[in-house]
């Protein structure tokens, strides 16, 4: 069942201009506002866990030989997920009921599957190959497709986006459902968007090689596209976060006055 949308989320998702068909500069604008969105969300309650996920967990797991997650890390990742999104009180308890060895063995197997996928492949094929790893991860208690995508993104943020409700709602034609089929549709669409944003960045700045066109060395990845959608969902209804210099960022009444 799709989650109910609050008045605030409706204002963000419906009141703000859709991000999906915007140019790369607009996407970059919202990606850079991800930190501000996390700081503001739930009075900053998600900030510490989000920093842990991105700045500690991802590099720590990649440095292990072979890469894997611990039981404690799985529980904390679930806490990050429910703090950043819809609260589910029993999810952490379910995740904690998995034995430490089972978590290590299962995540290790899934990470091997994910790392075997070649970068730059066709979106639909990459998505199909990722499903095996997702099914491996969802064998753990408390791990559904959304949580599995967050785990998978630890080792393959380039191709696997976290399947957050906010990001799914930002993709035209998709509805929030917690199943593998929805994940497949979402991931395939996100990978297509990654390719389009990289191509646009490379065109606007030929020396960028697909790197984020503001020159910060930050290449578009599936996880960064999700960040932009998440930030847009939560902040797009607030005028102070709109990108300057765009006429279509102005309220309709103000634009009409200019035209008359």
TrEMBL record:
<protein>
    <submittedName>
        <fullName>Uncharacterized protein</fullName>
    </submittedName>
</protein>
<feature type="region of interest" description="Disordered">
    <location>
        <begin position="236"/>
        <end position="260"/>
    </location>
</feature>
<feature type="compositionally biased region" description="Basic and acidic residues">
    <location>
        <begin position="241"/>
        <end position="254"/>
    </location>
</feature>
């Amino acid at each position: 069942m799709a989650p109910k949308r609050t008045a605030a989320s409706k204002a963000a998702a419906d009141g703000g201009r859709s991000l999906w068909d915007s140019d790369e500069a607009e996407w970059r604008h919202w990606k850079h506002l991800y930190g501000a969105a996390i700081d503001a969300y739930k009075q900053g309650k998600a900030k510490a866990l989000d920093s842990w996920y991105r700045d500690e967990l991802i590099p720590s797991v990649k440095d292990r030989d072979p890469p894997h997650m611990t039981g404690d890390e799985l529980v904390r990742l679930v806490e990050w997920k429910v703090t950043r999104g819809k609260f589910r009180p029993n999810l952490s308890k379910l995740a904690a009921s998995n034995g430490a060895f089972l978590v290590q063995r299962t995540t290790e197997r899934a990470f091997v599957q994910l790392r075997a996928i070649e970068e730059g492949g066709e979106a639909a094929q990459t998505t199909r190959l990722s499903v095996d790893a997702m099914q491996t991860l969802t064998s753990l208690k408390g791990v559904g497709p959304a949580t599995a995508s967050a785990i998978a993104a630890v080792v393959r943020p380039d191709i696997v986006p976290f399947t957050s409700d906010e990001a799914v709602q930002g993709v035209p034609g998709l509805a929030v459902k917690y199943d593998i089929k929805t994940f497949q549709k979402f991931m395939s669409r996100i990978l297509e968007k990654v390719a389009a944003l990289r191509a646009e960045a490379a065109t606007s700045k030929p020396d960028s090689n697909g790197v984020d066109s503001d020159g910060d060395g930050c290449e578009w990845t599936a996880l960064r596209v999700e960040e932009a959608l998440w930030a847009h969902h939560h902040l797009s209804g607030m005028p102070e976060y709109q990108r300057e210099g765009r006429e279509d960022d102005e309220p309709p009444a103000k634009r009409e006055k200019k035209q008359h």
